[in-house]
Predict the 3D structure of the following.
Amino acid sequence: MPPIELECIVKFGGSSITKKDEFETINADAWSFAIEIIRKVEGKCIIVHGAGSFGHFQAKEFGLNHRLVSALVEAGISAVSVSPCSGWRTEDKSKVTSSDLETITGLLENGFLPVLHGDCVLDQTRGCTILSGDTVIEVLASHFKPKRVVFLTDVDGIYTLPPSHEDATLIPEIHFSEDGEIMTAVTMDTKSHDVTGGLKIKLQTAWNILNESKGTIPVFVCNICSKAAEYSCCHGYLYEENGTAILLYRNQDHT
Ligand code: ATP
């Protein structure tokens, strides 16, 4: 049994909450949109955010996290910042050996909304390392078993090609097979090697969540300023397919 009923884990992508091309500049419109969505979620959720044009260390130093939490609090949301640095440990960079889940559970139980981010943490092999927000999400999803995980980003979802490409088309559903192969248009597309490292990591994270949850936790990728973002966070489906749902394809679903 999951320790607490969690509606969703929402990733505020760095590219959507900051202006990628302007050093340490927040995207105020996207913040307002995203905060409004969080207000509409009926139930408990956790936010994990990226750093975008603030970068990892600057994000901590100049307080992107602090600014986001303040904006949430000003909007009447009981958000609390939880920095992985103080309670999370890793081994060889990405294997999380301990995580401060008691604190997060306590916050959720008491009606608070935890806000986490990628962080510098102590590492048994390397001394210290950068723990990515995506790894944080995987650990949280494995423990809390939310109804869904939603990645809010600066484009409408996952496309067959980089979105700036004139032939790029949005993929409404991506299926992974039970052995981890992407079965839909991304692999059918001969130029799938064009996807950025960031997108590859997102797909890997989605697969890890689907695999760990045996497909019970769907993953969505939506534009932070879209109805699809609101619908996927609040209801667990996309608005008029204007986003991407990432799901596990099970053979028995179709026999
Ligand atoms: P993070 O906080 O981890 O950086 P993010 O949501 O900001 O998360 P990015 O890693 O910046 O995510 O990835 C989003 C970017 O990926 C988009 O701005 C988009 O231009 C780019 N991208 C490249 N190829 C694709 C594709 N095939 N489909 C969707 N986006 C793509």
User: Anything to note?
Assistant: The CA atoms of residues 227 and 239 lie 6 Å apart.
